[in-house]
Design a protein that fits this description.
By secondary structure, this protein is an alpha+beta fold. The chain has one helix at 2-43, and strands at 45-56, 59-69, 74-85, 90-105, 108-120, 140-149, 153-158, 164-169. The protein contains 1 helix and 8 strands, in the order H-E-E-E-E-E-E-E-E. The protein has an 8-stranded antiparallel beta barrel with strand order 1-2-3-4-5-6-7-8. A hairpin with a 2-residue loop joins strand 4 and strand 5 (108-120). The longest helix is centred in the first third of the chain and has 42 residues, at 2-43. It starts with a helix and ends with a strand.
Length: 170
């Protein structure tokens, strides 16, 4: 009798463990989807982002701008990009405007910058021989981990370079 009871318990536990694991996995996926949906609703709107400075080869690039996220999963980015070449003692300033798409997936903001337009505002005559817009490929994909996101503030960490973006809703 004990052997039959033991065999039955082992059989039940073998059947139940994958089932409970599946329930836990589904619950975890549902929780993550719920968080992603909450983040998506909070993201919609226009965000003013603090300037970000990056070192790129022999230059320092400073980005100042805003991003607008719409309910149809479209986005616009716009602002000013300053490229400082200290050795050459030249600073270039561009206005930029980009369009793209966005989604929240596994607590990450995934964006595709479909198109960008750069206008040289410091040395416009340079656009005739060197058009910066032509240097940017179309459909650039990037993802950022969401550090925090509320109705009024957002902190993102770009996944490739680790740049931190801090923004507040307009």
């Amino acid at each position: 009798m004990k052997k039959v009871l033991f065999t039955a318990l082992v059989s039940l536990s073998v059947m139940f463990v994958p089932y409970s694991s599946s329930i836990a996995q589904n619950s975890k996926m549902n929780d993550l989807a719920s968080i992603d949906q909450m983040y998506s609703s909070k993201l919609v709107g226009t965000w003013n982002c603090n300037p970000v400075e990056m070192e790129v080869e022999d230059a320092t690039v400073t980005m100042k701008g805003k991003a607008s996220y719409f309910t149809n999963k479209r986005s616009n980015t716009f602002g000013t990009m300053i490229i400082d070449y200290p050795k050459e003692k030249i600073t270039l300033e561009y206005d930029y405007f980009g369009t793209g798409t966005w989604e929240i997936n596994n607590k990450k903001l995934v964006e595709i910058l479909e198109d960008i337009k750069l206008t040289n505002i410091s040395h416009p005559y340079m656009d005739q021989s060197f058009n910066m817009t032509d240097m940017f490929p179309k459909n650039i994909s990037a993802s950022s981990s969401i550090i925090s996101l509320s109705q009024s503030s957002m902190i993102l960490k770009e996944d490739t370079e680790g740049v931190i973006f801090t923004c507040s809703k307009k």
